[in-house]
Amino acid sequence: MSALTLSTSSATTQRADVVVIGVAKGAKGPVVALGGEAVDKAYGGKLAATLDALGAGGSEGETTKLPAPSAGVKAPVVLAVGLGEAPGKHESYDLETLRRAAGTAARALAGTKKAAFALPVEDATSVAAVAEGALLGAYAFTSYRSSGDGGANGRKGGAGRAAGRNEKKDKDGASAPLAEITVVGAKPRDKAHKAAAERAEVLAAEVARARDLINTPSNDLTPAVFADRARDVAKQHSLDIEVLDEGSLAKGGYGGILGVGKGSGNPPRLVRISHTHPKAKKSLALVGKGITYDSGGISLKPVGHNETMKCDMSGAAAVLSAVVSAARLGLRVNVTGWLALAENMPSGTATRPGDVLSMYSGKTVEVLNTDAEGRLVLADALTRACEESPDAVVDVATLTGAMVLALGNRTFGVLSNDDDFRSTVHELAEDAGEASWPMPMPTHLRKGMESPVADISNIGERPGGGLVAGLFLKEFVDENVLWAHLDIAGPAFNDSGPFGYTPKGGTGSGVRTLVRLAERAAAGELP
User: Fold this and answer.
1) Cα–Cα distances in Å, from 144 out to 112, 266, 300?
2) pTM tops 0.85
3) Helices (H), 54-143
4) Would residue 375 show up in a list of annotated catalytic residues for this protein?
5) Alpha-carbon distance 38 to 46, whole Å?
6) Annotated catalytic residue within 107, 269, 282, 375
7) What per-residue confidence (pLDDT) applies to 157?
8) 301 is an active site residue
9) What is the pLDDT of residues 427-438, one digit of tens each?
10) Catalytic residue of the set 74, 145, 168, 301
């Protein structure tokens, strides 16, 4: 992890390699944001004019480096990061704006040892936003570089890359992530500020865990290996864990998980990992899709659609990290994670289109498309999770391309069997900084999944495919249990350029939303 400290000292007196200040778009050009006043004074009040002359306008995501004045600022370099439109006179910057700005700055400072972030900090929530954004931005996955020492979940099992090492370069010469972060204006002796920073450190570490898992190639992250990683984490954080191997799955009648995994030489697993608190009054079940590689099976994906399918276990990674977060934060709620792990491959033993699977629930499913496999493993896990009568169950999955077409690459869909719960999850996601959108489940789409030979088929009408998938999952959820489904197919893996605190590759989408939900449950505030 990057070292995180809080400081009430002026930005100009910080012993750092770089001081980060915010710059916003004003009516007549860039303006220096709150937190950068002392640095501006060191420039004789002309910092905004200097930035304007350099072409900086204050747009969100913009960064501008300039040498610090020879007197007045201890750090040799100032980095101005854009915050977008300046807020009104009695308004503050949006928390997500602060997260993204801090993350953008942290990414721009790869190879730097220490930076002091003098961004607008007015209370504990803004301290949390700046700290979280900076820590999330200081990430790199280095496990497979020729001279790297391995990520938290990489081949060699070394420390994760949520933070940089103290040297400026990795052994292979690549820039290491920013190593030390100081949040200027935050009070290290203030209980609220200190708690905000500690929470940010836990979230960043667990999002990094999810990112590392997602970025790990499928040849090194089979279902069995994923389950072993979960065992290691459970031991480290005193969590209860149970792993069902292929024999136990067959004995238990988990036809969906077995049906998906039967074409692979790497057999499936179902992992139950739980955090319990002696004073908990609520319980949550989190279910994650964990397809460690998805070829599509016999319904084979074409070239151009299979290169990043190592990320099809992003839901399971998010669930694992959320459970660990709940434990590390000591949340007064019982949180059980279910990781439905399988590899979807074509072979002589693979499930064929037209085969019928007997699910754990007792229902039968006609498999018309083996590339609609995620809903099959989730169905078994959802049924099993509901048997424990949780107050709510949430599944997380890179489930459908249809949801990506509907909402794009940065927003996940939220479906639910309860409108109030769907609204709650959506609001918590937005509060956490994860873009989401509530989606309907039109009942007329259920007819498209009618099967002449089984209780239901695994696909229906092509239009509205993301909604059809939600309706399928609903069939395996106890009607007396609150349930929500997060389709993170868009934001789970970023195969374009990095932005804000989001890197290229695995993003850890869903972790922060699930943690916010656990915190809400711990407060007794579920619908």
Assistant:
1) 22, 22, 28
2) yes
3) 95-108, 124-137
4) yes
5) 12
6) 375
7) 40
8) yes
9) 999 999 999 999
10) 301
